[in-house]
Design goal:
Layout: H1 3-9, E1 11-14, H2 17-23, H3 26-42, H4 49-62, H5 65-70, E2 74-77, H6 129-132, H7 139-150, H8 154-161, H9 192-197, H10 206-230, H11 236-262, H12 267-296, H13 304-327, H14 337-349, H15 352-361, H16 368-393, H17 410-439
Antiparallel strand pairs: 1-2
Helix pairs in contact: 1-4, 2-3, 3-4, 7-8, 10-11, 10-17, 11-12, 11-17, 12-13, 12-17, 13-14, 16-17
Length: 447
């Protein structure tokens, strides 16, 4: 096989039909199109792709010289595939419709099909030549370009396939452009394997991934430690409650990390894992509310009916908000991102109502336990509020555009503040339990 054959084997021939066939004789044009289409419909095995490409070349060479010299042919290179991990397919789009449609040869790269409205190219997806020539081109992109230029062997393609591809904001797909102040470090349209590998790249998601992975490990450790400690001093119901709370915190951290790892896989995966991330947040809110109601009414000696009704009402409201938050994730409802965030914000703010109710029932600030718990609840809400303001206002990248792309941008701070809030709430539960164990129940008797 000649060098030319090796090169053309892994390339797309795009958009030559509409221009080429308008200048060629109608009979030869129809013959070329029919021949090409027939071969690609019958032959999908990688071993015959070279034969099909040679047929296309022969047809082109037989056309008028005046036609072929004015033909504009765009060759877009894609990575070669290995026999174990890759598959080769073809993708035809509306061939032969009024002789104006283009003939395309498609392929699957890293088991991922590029969307129909995007053109894959040398840096992976939707990039322009301007970006390839950018002065800010990273080492990773230079690696891809250098291996692309040779593309003479399977080893070169294997090297290209393993390149770490990072994009600037202008070149990232639209669904990742939710923060215009983050100007670089975007991953895009990676395979599952590369998504996992990208955990160890230095990107604008690295801190987001690892901050909550570390948080997940932290709460796993706390779950084991608290369970062993509480077995000595508390009842089984208390142990179950604390373990469930910490498991929900673990899931929130883990699902958040999963979202940040795989959100770059495709737009569909972005939407899917964003919903998974919201599920984790919702589970943590449910756990916080349920544990709060359990501890708040721990020692009240009012009638069982009254306490049951009170807890039931608050629980139903919390679960209704959980269902509303989950319903907002249904794609068919097409709920905007701002609306989803608003639901979570209102849900979190709702906690002020049962807290004020508890404070009044306890006798206000004259009660020692109220004086102990009020500052801790205020700190909890302050941490969450600061996190939300930083996230919504995109601070500090709003003022330091392009300077905190990889470390220190708003989503990093959001993660750290939420992690701190969860840890603080865990400690608050321990403080409350310790107070009750040491001092008994001195709350007012409800009638």
């Amino acid at each position: 096989m000649s060098q030319y054959d090796k090169m053309i084997n892994s390339q797309f021939i795009t958009d030559y039909s509409s221009q080429l066939m308008m200048r060629a004789a109608a009979q030869r044009t129809a013959t070329a199109t029919t021949t090409t289409t027939t071969f690609y419909k019958r032959n999908r095995d990688s071993d015959v792709i070279g034969q099909n490409i040679r047929i296309i070349r022969i047809v082109i060479e037989k056309m008028d010289k005046t036609t072929t010299t004015t033909t504009t042919t765009t060759l877009v290179t894609v990575t070669a595939t290995t026999t174990k991990e890759k598959k080769i397919t073809e993708n035809f789009e509306k061939q032969n419709k009024k002789m104006t449609e283009s003939l395309r040869l498609g392929s699957v790269v890293d088991q991922h099909q590029f969307p129909d409205n995007e053109e894959p190219n040398i840096l992976g997806h939707g990039l322009t030549g301007d970006f390839a020539a950018s002065n800010n081109q990273s080492t990773y992109q230079k690696c891809c370009l250098s291996s692309l230029k040779s593309k003479n062997s399977a080893d070169d393609y294997h090297k290209y396939n393993k390149c770490k591809m990072l994009l600037n904001f202008e070149d990232a797909p639209d669904h990742l452009k939710f923060n215009p102040y983050i100007r670089s470090g975007y991953r895009t349209f990676l395979s599952t394997k590369l998504c996992l590998q990208s955990m160890f790249w230095w990107t604008n998601e690295t801190i987001n991934i690892w901050s909550h992975l570390v948080g997940c490990l932290l709460f796993i450790g706390l779950t084991i430690f608290d369970f062993q400690l509480m077995k000595l001093h508390t009842e089984l119901s208390d142990q179950i409650l604390v373990v469930c709370l910490l498991i929900c915190f673990c899931l929130c951290m883990l699902l958040s990390s999963i979202y940040h790892i795989f959100s770059c896989k495709s737009e569909e995966h972005y939407e899917l894992f964003l919903s998974v991330d919201y599920l984790g947040i919702s589970l943590s809110l449910v756990a916080i509310y349920i544990s709060s109601m359990y501890y708040a009414f721990w020692c009240f000696t009012a009638s069982a009916t009254y306490l049951f009704t009170l807890r039931l009402v608050y629980s139903v409201i919390v679960l209704a908000m959980f269902c509303l938050a989950m319903a907002a994730q249904i794609p068919k409802l097409n709920v905007s991102l701002n609306a989803k965030i608003a639901v979570l914000f209102i849900w979190a703010a709702y906690g002020v109502i049962p807290f004020l109710h508890w404070t009044i029932m306890m006798g206000g600030l004259e009660n020692e336990l109220v004086r102990l718990m009020v500052p801790r609840v205020i700190i909890m809400y302050a941490l969450c509020f600061i996190a939300f303001v930083i996230y919504a206002a995109k601070i500090p990248e709003r003022w330091l555009t392009g300077k905190v792309d990889f470390f220190g941008h708003s989503h990093n701070w959001w993660h750290l503040f939420i992690l701190a809030a969860f840890y603080h709430w865990h400690n608050t539960g321990l403080v409350y339990a310790e107070y009750r164990i040491n001092n008994g129940c001195h709350g007012p008797i409800l009638t």
